[in-house]
Amino acid sequence: xxxxxxxxxxxxxxxxxxxxxxxxxxxxxxxxxxxxxxxxxxxxxxxxxxxxxxxxxxxxxxxxxxxxxxxxxxxxxxxxxxxxxxxxxxxxxxxxxxxxxxxxxxxxxxxxxxxxxxxxxxxxxxxxxxxxxxxxxxxxxxxxxxxxxxxxxxxxxxxxxxxxxxxxxxxxxxxxxxxxxxxxxxxxxxxxxxxxxxxxxxxxxxxxxxxxxxxxxxxxxxxxxxxxxxxxxxxxxxxxxxxxxxxxxxxxxxxxxxxx
Length: 260
Ligand SMILES: Nc1ncnc2c1ncn2[C@@H]1O[C@H](COP(=O)(O)OP(=O)(O)O)[C@@H](O)[C@H]1O
Ligand SMILES: [Mg+2]
What we know:
CATH architecture of the domain at 1-79 and 199-260: 3-Layer(aba) Sandwich
Bound molecules: adenosine-5'-diphosphate, magnesium ion
Mean pLDDT: 89
Number of strands: 10
Largest sheet: 6 strands, mixed
Structural class: alpha/beta
Helix content: 40-55%
Number of helices: 11
Shape: globular
CATH topology of the domain at 1-79 and 199-260: Rossmann fold
Oligomer: single chain
């Protein structure tokens, strides 16, 4: 459904991504990891068709989103929901207006119908609509803002795929857990694929079946958790070294949970 084929990308002739290829199948859950500045957000921007690719293809349902007119690109983009790194809510709009923005602006639904959909969505993302509907974003906690951004993305498209850029960065542990729960719920209840960028390896393990590691614009790993842990690749091991301890801990915990 989504595929990068030999994609290279540069900003002002400075190479950022180097010959990246990977595929995401329908309903698959993928995590992209890598050090800061390695090009993870750039991959998401390319998937949304927000940058022109200099080389290679970015295929959404078999169509190269980079080589098409903006009008067509906008249509294709509707298959993708994106939650940006900082949540990126409209500050001057209430939480309800943020979540219902797309429906109000781009559909024929009545304000009452939109409000019904918004209330339903707030429930889905685990928020009390009586509490948040008319609140401004800065009156809400970081974790609530993040969940509102997810609700907005889900109502702004008919997503077949949801992209999350560092969805838990800056959140405290309880808020982090709520956002991860919500991503897991999405994966279970909605027929969509998820791509999550994170450098929190513990988070990654709990929300993905497949892992990609990008270092300095190069894809150095693509595989499942066992393959990641057992990788003999020197660059993969170097990347994992700081996380080894928490990595093993989570693994053990998962193992213990599976025991009868
Ligand atoms: N708009 C831009 N113009 C020029 N360079 C950029 C721009 N956006 C990002 N970069 C550079 O591209 C590289 C990859 O950035 P990014 O994809 O944001 O990395 P990550 O998300 O892995 O931290 C970084 O070196 C960053 O400085
Ligand atoms: Mg980034």
